[in-house]
Specification:
The structure is a single chain. The chain has about 70 residues and is mainly α. The chain is about 25% helix and about 0% strand. The chain starts with 14 loop residues before the first helix and ends in a 20-residue tail after the last helix.
Length: about 70
């Protein structure tokens, strides 16, 4: 699903994250990331393992990722 919203209607940095929640349909997992993220091999497996290690029915993993230098394209 694509919801096109003009940038002039975006209220703040969390606007899209709030709107996308209207599309959730009982998925097992939800991942919200920014476009400048880097991933390690098997990142999805590692995240699921971390979630399962939490002793809670609805765990949340959160992080403020460090900066990194990307290689020139």
């Amino acid at each position: 699903t694509i919801e096109a919203v003009p940038h002039t209607e975006a209220k703040n940095a969390y606007y899209a994250r709030c709107r996308v929640q209207n599309y959730f349909k009982q998925e097992d997992y939800c991942l919200q990331i920014d476009s400048h993220m880097q991933f390690i091999p098997e990142w999805d497996v590692k995240l699921i393992e971390q979630l399962r290690s939490c002793n809670h029915a609805k765990p949340i993993l959160s992080v403020y990722p460090p900066d990194f230098e990307s290689e020139p394209v």
